[in-house]
Amino acid sequence: MTKYNISGVIPKTECLIVPVFEGQTPEAFLKPIDPVFFPYVQYVATLKDFTGKKLQQSVIFPGDELVDRIMYVGLGKEKDFTIHTWKQVVGAATISLQDRRVDTITFFIPDSILEKFEAELLSAATVAAVEVAAYKYDRYKTEADAKAIDLKQITIVGKALAKDKRRSERGVLEGQQIGEAANMVRELGNTPPSIMTPEHMAEAAQKISKEYPEIHTTILSLPQIKKLKMGCFLGVAKGSDYEPKFIIMEYWGGRKTEKPVVLIGKGVTFDSGGLSIKPTDFMINMKYDMLGGAAVMGTIQAAAALKLKRNIVSLIPACENMPSGKAYRPDDILTAMNGTTVEVGNTDAEGRLILSDAICYAHKFQPKEIIDLATLTGACMVALGTERAGLFANDDNVAARYTAAASAAGEEVWRLPLGEEYSEAIKSDIADIQNVGGVGHPRYAGASTGAAFLQVFVKDVPWAHLDLSSCYSDRGRPWIRSGANGYGVATLIEYLRK
Ligand code: BES
Ligand code: ZN
Ligand code: ZN
């Protein structure tokens, strides 16, 4: 466990991080802290290799007793600076240093940054960025060198932070809790699919509620799911040797009279496509198809850790989509919990099927709002790429609030349309609806027809659907390593807080 510290002075450290805006000399930043370093700073300032460009890094070794290294980090142009830039810079510095086996790091925060943000926000952002950056899925690396080292001590030095120590320390705790929840989500996602089975997901939920007894977890097993007549969920789960689990997590932190926000997350622990099997190249990474489910688990964990005064229910239909003699078939007709019949056009459009029963179930809680997170369509990825999620909503207010929360959390979304043409496209000749459909062409508007399918099951409740095109990446970034990225937790916490 990393120890975090807020301080007004620079302690003995392996590395002092000094942030610099593009075009500014670093000297102004260090001067008020410790004139001892001044000659080095001036020297670096004369070298043209460090200009303060965003994410630029330059390390010098001052030969000082207290400070082994000074790392200059570029913040980019001051006018473009946001809290996300800060988190990226902090994360990138953390990864660079962790890779050099440096475990005692001090972030010096100059007044020019302190002026821009509140103490709590700034310390929370810093700590969350460090936590997320330091995480590496290295369980299967057998060589010690390939594993990430634990960070021992992170000190955040800033006059205004030290003055407002109570708030800053609260921020530190928040940053840790959100970072931890995001990393828990990433660990679940990164785990190989023959280990991360529906049962394993259910165990992860139970582990969370052991750690946070305020969270009440119920796991529905096959007989109970059958009793509830979740025919769509059962249909998808049939092909797998692993039994499905319907995970219910409840956190009643708000007033008794307040209706809960129900979060739903797709928990397909592996999506082979089923009998409509995916081609080789499209099956890779389908262990991540449970990241919506993991995100709503992580969110309720973080909500409990932060003691949010809100009522929250997380629902995760967890199953595997596999081909076999027992698998559901294209041409099958499934009946959802609410009686809606669904013609199966493609067994690879399984996410909407399992979510339809979860949405039906959500109404039992008389929800204030329903928000679902799902890796629902490749089409959303085609439309938006991998750094932004698609947002669908039947309510402008929920859409606006979610968009604002996502922006504040640095997890951008873009609203995509629901509408009559998409709802028409999923009508079936022989059942109420079908699980595929396009507008103009079978492959057109796939993200919108997927969302329109879910909409069928939403009664008169404000609802938002996030098509998670952005929850994992093959490619690491300077501030986060490759694999699952914990997308959704930070936004949902921000959303629930407001
Ligand atoms: N899990 C996939 C969607 C997906 C694909 C997410 C790639 C992230 C990366 C989903 O179950 C799926 O296969 N959707 C199909 C739907 C189609 C058959 C209507 C798709 O998008 O191709
Ligand atoms: Zn699929
Ligand atoms: Zn899927």
Q: How would you portray this structure in words?
A:
- This protein is 37% helix and 20% strand.
- It is α/β, with parallel strands linked by helices and 498 residues long.
- 52% of the residues are buried.
- It contains 18 helices and 20 strands.
- Strands 7, 8, 9, 10, 11, 14, 15, 16 and 18 form a nine-stranded mixed sheet that branches.
- Ligand BES is lined by residues 271, 289, 346, 348-351, 375-379, 381, 436, 446.
In brief:
The protein has 498 residues and is α/β, with parallel strands linked by helices.
* Beta-strand percentage range: 15-25%
Count of helix runs = 18
**Radius of gyration computed on alpha carbons:** 24 Å
Derived structural class: alpha/beta
- Residue stretches low in confidence (pLDDT < 50, at least 5 long) are none
Q: How would a textbook summarize the main sheet?
A: 9 strands, mixed
Helix share bin: 25-40%
Average pLDDT confidence is 95
Bound molecules: ligand BES, zinc ion
β-strand number: 20
Globally, the shape reads elongated
Q: State the separation between the terminal residues, measured CA to CA.
A: 30 Å
